[in-house]
Amino acid sequence: MSVIRKLLLAGVAGVSMAVVATASAQQASPVTDSSFVLPGGERVLELSVVVPAPIDAVWALFTTTEGWTSWAAPVGRVDARVGGVIESSYDPAAALGSSTTIRNEIVALVPRRLLVIRNVQAPPSTSFDVPTFQRLQTALWFETVEGGNTRVTLDNAGYREGAAYDGVYRHFLAGNRWTFEQLLRRFIAGPVDWAKMLAPPKRETKPAAEPAAK
Q1: 203: left (phi over 0), alpha (psi -120 to 50) or beta
Q2: pLDDT, tens digit (0-9, with 9 covering 90-100), for 162-179
Q3: 19 belongs to a structural domain
Q4: Of 26, 132, 193, 195, which sits 20 to 30 A from 201 (CA to CA)?
């Protein structure tokens, strides 16, 4: 990690991080977990993934509505500016602007390099403590790597001690890993077919039992 990134995490985001993923999970996923703990004891959840696409294409998937809804969520709207909001929902019936969507405010933005967000609205029913989550910030770093590919690194910072922070950490360790896997899949398989992905599983029809022999 660069000195600049550590300074941003410690000074601007006020954060820290620690690895919790198991070795088997890391082997099964293309996402790298390099989480760590800052000197003050705060944890920083850090995940990264390398995608086979140029940085402009990857940046567009985070900062345009068309790009965002092609992989991240079936319902979404992106206002890519400081003070703007990335709004989304995994429910295809959700209405933008309603209380049921996820709203992340853009705190900082450096085109094709850095996107910093913080949550300002979560759906009414969640499996983690929302006020605790909203004390955190998430920095997304974009960098060109070998072969013209792009590495995206997520730093979700501000985790302190306590059960509420532990619950949020566990939720987003799994959730952000899944999100990065979706990002990689977007460039391998193309845009997500949300209707197909969210369709309820088909029930298996069992053949009718033959009448018992008399």
Answers
A1: beta
A2: 999 999 999 999 999 999
A3: yes
A4: 26
